[in-house]
Amino acid sequence: MKISTAVSRLLLALLAALIGIAVYLYTDHYTSRYFERKQQTAQALQQLQNEIQIIESEILKRRSGLYRETGTLNTHLQRFNSLLTRLYDTPFLLGPFYRDTYRELTGLARDFESFRERVKNFLTLNSTLREKIARLPRLQREAFSLFDTGPTESRKVLQPVSEAIAAFTLAFSAPQAHSRNLQQQLQDLDTLSRNFHDPARQAFLQSLRERLSDLNHLYALYSSQMKALLQNPLHERIAHLQATFQKDAQAELQDINDTNRLLLALYLVSLTVIIYYIVKTQEENKRLEELKNHLEHLLVTDSLTGLGNRYAFTRDEKKLYNPALILLNIDRFKHINEFYGTHIGDRVLQEVAEELRTVTPPNLNARLYRLGGDDFGVLFENRVGEWELENLVLFFYETLESHTITVDDLEIDLSYALGASSEIGRLFECADMALSAAKDSVNSPWLVYDSSIDKRPEIARNITSIRRLRNALAEENLLPYYQPIVSLKNPSKLKYEALARIEITESGKVIEPGSFMRMAREAKLSGRITQEILEKTFSIAGKNPGNFFSINLSTEDIEDTEIRRSIIRMIAEHAEIASQIVIEILESEEVGDYTILSEFIAAIKRHGCRIAIDDFGSGYSNFEKILKLDIDMIKIDGSLISRIDHDKHSELIVKTILDFAQYAGIETVAEYVHSKAIYDKVLELGFDYAQGFYLGEPSRSLGIVPALPPAS
Question: Is the Cβ–Cβ distance between 271 and 16 less than 8 Å?
């Protein structure tokens, strides 16, 4: 314990040192990053201010002449935009401290876009002016060609024309300063044009005046745009942005300082806590040890009864050299919960646990468990033989049965089932099989395991059957075999019954339904089998339009909503062959809901299917129900048909059913016709159809129905 405490203290001291180093590195990193970001951003903002001054200088240079290149101006506009974009995409400016800076930056970007558009228009106008002024010398040459060859009055016009062209050429450097002089020149040209009656000279002067007037208008627009560009608000925007950034950066610095102080305080607090835990380590270790013991107790203890649980049983069984186990179950305990409520049920379980503690012999050194809802176990070292184990089980049974449980003034008589085993390696499983056998037994409420009650072989067979059935469904090895149903009155009328079979591909073995249908129902696969046989029978019926096919259907399938709807849907989808289909319903199976059965029969008969009752007479036969179900055919059970050639009682029952069927207009089929004698009797009694191995065995394909043998 001392070594453990020293190690714990050393680890806590190291933890304190690591926390201190982490706090220092964190604060140093974020403070350094802050100043680095602030310096970079401030430099970028100053570069913006410098660039806008250069841009304005380049615009001013356009005042002294039209022919300055625009490349430098565009370069600085692009550089300003790049700086602005880089600032706009700076991640930390998107943070909570720089919302005002980002808002100002957004406004600056918007104003710059507007400014750049105006510069673009200004440069376009500059280009237009250059082009128009470049044409003025050509106009002067044209004036000389018109006026210099004429009379003296014509040559006098050359001077005012030359003065006007020169004035407009020089006006570019200061359009507003020369505006008044330009207007006078335009008026003089207008006066000159009216004094000439020569159309060519008059037209030239008017054209010159119009061109100079247009140039005068462009001068005014050019001067206005230059003035607007030089009065842009970007200087003030950038200055305001710089001030806002400084304010936001100061707020972030304040937050960093506050965070650093908080981290320092937290470090001091954590250091204090670590020192406290170093002092309290030994006491805490003791408390944790007690908690560990308590949790281990909870892990192996049933919280309701205080007995050991299943985990404790598994652990304890391994500790015994020759263990024996008695399992005890309360009969119909569910009824106690349902009648009295679960709170009384819990009290009953507690009382049973106490009874077990009381009646268990001390010298048995047994350990008691609650292994399930109302299952209890007694585990002990088996120092006795088999007969003594039986006596011990009987002792527990008789002792517990003789006691009455009292809960809140309620006297509750309980009965029990017990199973015991001493099979090493399979102790619980064998005791559980003995308990299950005892619960199912009508003679003995307690049993000691022996191999005769071992259900593992049966379980293995069931698992094999289910696996084989699933494989058959997956591999298309579940097939219908067709057995002829011979018409005794109209031999040309061919009928077959579709019977489910499983073909084993490897061996070629054919498995009949008796080997797999019970397990199919338990595994919820009977519906799939029915649907598979239906689908394949529909297919062969469509290829043989002159034949009729019977298909067996259990009442369980019909009462299952999904299967019932699926069958009705399949029949509706094959409506063109529905009249060839006869659905056989087993009379021997108990019908849970005649309303559902009636509705199902009505639904499929609407599509043209016919209905037969199979195995009629095998158990009981409710003639009234048969009449209400709108049946087309009755197949009399083979257990009656197989005896009618020598058993007068069976013959009487069959005659009664035939009379009933004839009265009700229902066709009849004799099943299990396996000999000439039975065939002759079936003919004599007047059946409509006969079926059996004597007339044809089930086959994968539709065989040729043999000619009916003559009656003896």
Answer: yes
